[in-house]
Amino acid sequence: MKIIDSIRKSDTKRFIISLGLFIAAMVWFLPLMKHYTIILSGTTHFPDTDMWYSALDLKIISGLYDVRGGLGYAFTRFTFDLIWPLIYYFFLSSSLNLAMKGFNSLSLKKIYKLIPLLAVVFDITENTLCSVHFIGLKLDQIAVAASISSGLKWIFIFISFALIIFHLIIWIVNLLIRKYKKT
Q: With bands split at pLDDT 50, 70 and 90, how would you rate the model's confidence at 9?
């Protein structure tokens, strides 16, 4: 019993820390990153903040960047934009872990834990492909792959949030059922 209680407490602590980091990043870090990217790139158009964009959209946006702007964009993708996916991964994975307490299917738990990780993988893939495209290797295949990576990133982020909400609803219903049975 003591081991289970200590695991629950550590899951709660991990969630609280990840929530604090996530909120701080949303309020402070991301606006700072956007401002810095605008200064370095010389434009306010960034493909990776859009949920969906086509290869043509990427080509149009990259046409707005000069060499300095393309390098500035790439610099921010490989500095700031490596930190942000780690923050949202920590938040999503710890939220899913906490929301799935009492969920008995070990195989589903393993799959659930992969979903935020896949979002991060596709996010970093998108950043890499966009950076390569903006720096000068403007191949159609790179633009298409970046577009697909962006869509998949957002799909896995939305699935993660949907699973968290789903398990919170189940937890609340179970709590209400237990409370109702006691009365």
A: low
Please state the domain count of the chain.
1
Nearest to 132 by CA among 143, 122, 119: 143
pLDDT tens for each residue of 86-109: 999 999 999 998 888 767 766 777
Domain that includes residue 152, residue range: 2-182
Residue 144 CB partners (closer than 8 Å, separation 6+): 55
State the number of CA atoms in the 13 A half-sphere of 13 facing the CB.
6
Collapsing DSSP states into helix, strand and coil, what is residue 66? coil
Between residues 47 and 97, the one the model is more confident about = 97
Q: What is the pLDDT of residue 8?
A: 52
Give the span between the Cα atoms of 62 and 68, in whole angstroms.
12
What's the average model confidence in pLDDT over 61-75? Answer: 78
- The whole-angstrom separation of Cα 112 and Cα 6 is 23
Residues recorded for the chain: 183
Residue 6's alpha-carbon distances to 1, 3, 104, in angstroms, are 9, 5, 19
Task: Tell me, rounded to whole angstroms, the distance of Cα 108 from its chain centroid.
Answer: 20
What gap in Å lies between CA 8 and CA 105, rounded to an integer?
Answer: 18
pTM, full prediction:
0.82
Q: How far is CA 98 from the centre of its chain?
A: 18
Q: Look at residue 78 in the predicted model and tell me its pLDDT.
A: 79
